[in-house]
């Protein structure tokens, strides 16, 4: 972008360094908020899809371990057994009252009197014991626990790390204690964290390259991957360029950033970028759509990214040169 010359200059005293700095700042903010959305909503969507898949697999395998269907003869045989058992119960629960007094007429030998149950009738509805009323403090504690559980359901370890980093950046004493070279924590803690973070991207790329061997037997991507690539890298830029041009013409009344050529070009370029590499980590955690994600990243970065992004950058520069 900094090589585009005066096309991207915003103010009379602009230089290529300031244009490049603004472009990197816009891309950095976009990447930050994208990661927050990706590791919160996207992470939970893939986790939910994985649980649904496991539940469906469990339901499909259940007939093999459960009982099979029963024939009508077996059902009729069981009903006959139940009927005979009921007759035996009635016969055992009846007594014959024989006459002892000669003044009382004898009852027939076949007469039987059913015993009356002395126990109270059984109620199938269980009696609920009312819980004692909660105090205000307990009610607030339960509400806070429920809110914390719902928030934790949308969180993930990278998102917790981003929130901690945000607090560190917003609290000057804490930032000074961690990033000042004269501080005790800078060489012992901060540099150790930085050393662990530097190989993160190379390790991700190394794992991605090693996993690509699983799709070498397939010469062409699947239909889902083709549809995703066409939508992500062709249809979205075609629909996003008119929106950016409209914002450049009429957005100056709401924000001065609408007249910044670097911002407009960055918005167009970010609209056609490939799928984020760290999505492969989310699919590895959940085990869902892992092969499709590998194919998508391979074809996006290895084949389509360079020609499409180059064409979109030239289109964005031409549009900004005519509009701004």
From TrEMBL:
GO aspect biological process, one term: transmembrane transport
User: Per UniProt, which keywords does this protein have?
Assistant: Membrane, Transmembrane, Transmembrane helix
Annotated spans, Disordered: 108-133
Q: Which domain of life is it from?
A: Eukaryota
Alphabetical list of Pfam families matching this protein: Mem_trans
Q: What is its main location?
A: membrane
- Where in the cell does this protein reside? Membrane
Looking up InterPro entries in the UniProt record yields: Mem_transp_PIN-like
The annotated topology with respect to the bilayer is: Multi-pass membrane protein
- Which residues are listed as membrane-spanning? 151-171, 229-250, 262-284, 296-320
Low complexity bias (residue ranges): 115-128
List cellular component terms (GO). Answer: endoplasmic reticulum; membrane
PANTHER family attached to this UniProt entry:
AUXIN EFFLUX TRANSPORTER FAMILY PROTEIN (EUROFUNG) (PTHR31794:SF2)
The name of this protein is Auxin efflux carrier
Species this chain originates from: Apophysomyces ossiformis
Q: What is the lineage of its organism?
A: Eukaryota, Fungi, Fungi incertae sedis, Mucoromycota, Mucoromycotina
């Amino acid at each position: 972008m900094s090589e585009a010359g005066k096309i991207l200059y915003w103010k009379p005293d602009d230089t290529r360094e300031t244009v490049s700095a603004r472009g990197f700042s816009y891309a950095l903010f976009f990447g930050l908020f994208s990661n927050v959305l990706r590791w919160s909503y996207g992470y939970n969507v893939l986790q939910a899809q994985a649980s649904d898949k496991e539940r469906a697999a469990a339901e499909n395998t259940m007939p093999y371990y459960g009982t099979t269907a029963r024939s009508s003869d077996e059902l009729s045989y069981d009903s006959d057994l139940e009927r005979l058992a009921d007759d035996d119960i009635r016969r055992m629960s009846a007594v014959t009252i024989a006459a002892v007094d000669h003044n009382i007429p004898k009852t027939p030998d076949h007469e039987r009197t059913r015993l009356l149950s002395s126990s109270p009738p059984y109620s199938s509805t269980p009696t609920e014991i009312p819980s004692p009323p909660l105090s205000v403090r307990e009610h607030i504690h339960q509400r806070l626990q429920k809110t914390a559980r719902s928030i934790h359901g949308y969180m993930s370890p990278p998102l917790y790390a981003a929130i901690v980093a945000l607090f560190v950046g917003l609290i000057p004493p804490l930032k000074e204690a961690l990033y000042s070279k004269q501080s005790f924590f800078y060489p012992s803690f901060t540099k150790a964290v930085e050393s662990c973070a530097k190989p993160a991207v190379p390790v991700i790329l190394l794992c991605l390259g090693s996993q690509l061997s699983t799709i070498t037997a397939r010469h062409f991507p699947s239909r889902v991957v083709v549809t995703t690539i066409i939508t992500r890298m062709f249809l979205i830029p075609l629909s996003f360029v008119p929106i950016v041009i409209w914002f450049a013409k009429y957005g100056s009344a709401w924000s001065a950033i609408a007249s910044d050529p670097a911002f407009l070009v960055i918005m167009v370029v970010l609209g056609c970028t490939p799928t984020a590499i760290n999505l492969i980590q989310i699919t590895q955690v959940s085990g869902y759509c892992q092969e499709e994600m590998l194919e998508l990243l391979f074809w996006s970065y290895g084949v389509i990214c360079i020609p499409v992004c180059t064409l979109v950058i030239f289109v964005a520069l031409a549009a900004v040169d005519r509009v701004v």
